[in-house]
């Protein structure tokens, strides 16, 4: 999951310069585009952040507030469509800040999470992060001036356990550490939007599979969604908004109380009890179902026989074991900062 994405609430809060391309483009969830020969008052129109020439020995910089705080694993400094004007290199720093704090202030303790690295032109530049700490902000420091199309910060959300205490939580949501672990098909669109925090915007903002030709009584597509902590589920929402003529006809939802053993992944985890029996769905509609399933760690949503689903939302309360799991992850991320 891209923790910096605007879809998740990410924001570009400061930059040293944005003479040719505005900084807010960095966290746009859309892929970058470029039409050569198109000009405005700033020069040739670019889809990204681009600074003026001759930044000086310190280079340029930009600061991004993550949409959801978490542990980083990979940063993508995407320079697509920037070739003769791409930066020569960069490093990445991170910090933990209050949303109201001044991220440019001298009191901010920035920690280097990616050492200086060269950047390729017109490319995805994937930079690995080996740091277990939970961060809220990133600072991309360029060795020079130049342009970057997108900045993606891939990682794992680490929710604050205090925010889960004594309340019902959308445990499937990416903001709360939910993850799409697997799907049977992603021919038309990826399954990741199923757990996005916002309302779907069009038919492309959801999960749509190819048309199955091997249709039988049990033929179906499926997707697995894991939770950050063990939860007693109380409600499910299956949203088929914008899928009018190609919505999934029926769903069933299975649950598990297990997790992968670390060697085999989710493929061998048994989804061995029913959370929602096979149920007919309305097209272009949000349907809410009351459920009662204790100690659930993940769901397998089965779509009969194929089609489109925009969102899946699972609501519940963490079990005592779930709260301990959250507290342990939180404590480990805090110790890493010491």
UniProtKB/TrEMBL annotation:
Keywords: Hydrolase, Purine metabolism. The keyword Hydrolase applies. It holds the Pfam family Allantoicase. It is an enzyme of class 3 (hydrolase). It catalyses: allantoate + H2O = (S)-ureidoglycolate + urea. Its EC number is 3.5.3.4. Coiled coil: none annotated. It comes from the Bacteria. Pathway: Nitrogen metabolism; (S)-allantoin degradation; (S)-ureidoglycolate from allantoate (aminidohydrolase route): step 1/1. InterPro entries: Allantoicase, Allantoicase_dom, Galactose-bd-like_sf. GO terms for biological process: allantoin catabolic process; purine nucleobase metabolic process. Residues 9-157, 177-318 form the Allantoicase domain. The keyword Hydrolase applies. Transmembrane segments: none annotated. Gene3D superfamilies: Galactose-binding domain-like. One of its GO terms (molecular function) is allantoicase activity. NCBIfam families: allantoicase (TIGR02961). Belongs to the allantoicase family. This is Probable allantoicase. The lineage of its organism: Bacteria, Bacillati, Actinomycetota, Actinomycetes, Mycobacteriales.
